[in-house]
Design goal:
Length: 121
Amino acid sequence: MTDLFSPYKMGKFNLSHRVVLAPLTRSRALNGLPQPALAEYYGQRSTEGGLLISEATPIAQEGIGYFHVSTCSWNYTEEQIEAWKKVVDAVHAKGGLIFCQLWHAGRASHKSNFFDIDILS
């Protein structure tokens, strides 16, 4: 039986253990930008050689399922890049890895999140 705390090679990434932080949406973003509390949150949970999966990051404005989520994927701006860099740097400072969870809320999306964009289905 494999020990939960034994190393694991995942593609080109070497994890020091098999405990992974699953995506947990914290709603710590304003106008799609991760706030300092989000960098602190992930930094606190990072371990040497550990893996974290970020909260849901919508791939399209129509895919936002609720307010205060961090966006990163449909309109990269310098402001978004800098905000996410703080999150990634906090994880890397502890020797951890972070993957971005790409997301679309699908039919659970709500028009109030679309900011004058029509629902497609």
